[in-house]
Design goal:
It is built from five helices and five strands; from the N terminus they run αααααβββββ. It is of the alpha+beta class. A hairpin with a 4-residue loop joins strand 4 and strand 5.
C-alpha cells in the first residue's frame, strides 16, 4: 500500500477517496472516481480528463512485474497485483518472446508431448534465465523510450507549440505536467509555477533548445503567461 501513497494523497486533494487495500478495491475506487468526475458534485470537480490522469498515476505507482522461477521465490511473492491473481504466467505465440518459448516447453512437458529439457528441470538454471529475460526486457523498454525521445526532439525542432497541460505533481521549486495531446511529461520551474496546484490546467510552450557546453538538444517546457 505504501507505493500508492502519492496516488491516495493526490486523490484526497481532489475530493476523491481511493482504497488501495487490494487490487480489487483499487479497481473499484478507480471506477467510482471515473463516474464521480464525469458528473461532478459533492466536492468532486466535473472533469472528464481527470479520470485518465488518475489512472495514469495509478499505473505509475505499480511495481513492474518480473519473470521468476517458482522454486527460487517465496509463494507470497507469486501474486500479480494488477490482475488480482494469486499465481500467473503469461504466454502467447512462441514466436514473440523467449519467455513464451520456455512456458510452451514446460506445458508440453506437463501434458506429455515432449520430454522436459534438462535446463528446465533445474531451478537455478531457470532462475538465471529469468534474470536474463528481465534485463533484456528492461533494456528493450529503455531503447523504446530513447527512440521516442529522439523522434520527439525531431518533431519539435524548429516547430515550437503552445498547448494545454495538466499538473500531475507539485514540487518545492516547480511542477510536473502531462501534455495529453502529445503524451509528454516534463518539468516546469520558476516563480510563476507557485500558483499552480495538482490537476490544474495550464498553457505551456514546447520547444527544443541547445544547452550546456556540448550544446546538446533538450526538450524544454515553459509556462505561457
Amino acid at each position: 500500500q505504501q507505493m500508492f501513497e502519492p496516488l491516495v494523497k493526490a486523490c484526497k486533494e481532489a475530493g476523491i477517496a481511493m482504497d488501495v487495500t487490494t487490487s480489487k478495491t483499487l479497481a473499484d475506487s478507480l471506477d467510482l472516481a471515473g463516474a464521480a468526475v464525469a458528473k461532478g458534485g459533492q466536492g468532486t470537480p466535473k472533469d472528464a480528463y481527470l479520470n485518465t490522469l488518475i489512472r495514469f498515476m495509478a499505473t505509475r505507482c505499480m511495481t513492474q512485474a518480473e519473470y521468476f522461477c517458482s522454486g527460487e521465490v517465496a509463494q507470497a511473492q507469486f501474486s500479480h497485483y494488477g490482475l488480482a491473481m494469486p499465481i500467473y504466467t503469461h504466454f502467447t505465440s512462441p514466436i514473440r518472446r523467449y519467455a513464451d518459448v520456455i512456458v510452451h516447453r514446460m506445458l508440453a512437458a506437463c501434458i506429455g508431448l515432449e520430454a522436459p529439457a534438462v535446463q528446465l528441470c533445474e531451478s537455478a538454471l531457470v532462475d538465471e534465465q529469468c534474470e536474463v529475460l528481465n534485463v533484456r526486457h528492461r533494456n528493450a523498454q529503455y531503447a523504446g523510450r530513447a527512440s521516442a525521445e529522439l523522434y520527439t526532439l525531431v518533431f519539435f525542432r524548429g516547430n515550437a507549440k503552445e498547448v494545454d497541460a495538466r499538473v500531475v505533481k507539485v514540487r518545492e521549486k516547480g511542477v510536473i505536467v502531462f501534455i495529453p495531446k502529445y503524451g509528454i511529461e516534463g518539468a516546469l520551474v520558476g516563480d510563476a509555477t507557485e500558483r499552480l496546484e495538482l490537476f490544474d490546467t495550464c498553457r505551456v510552450k514546447i520547444e527544443v533548445k541547445q544547452e550546456g557546453q556540448s550544446r546538446q538538444e533538450h526538450l524544454v517546457l515553459s509556462l505561457v503567461a
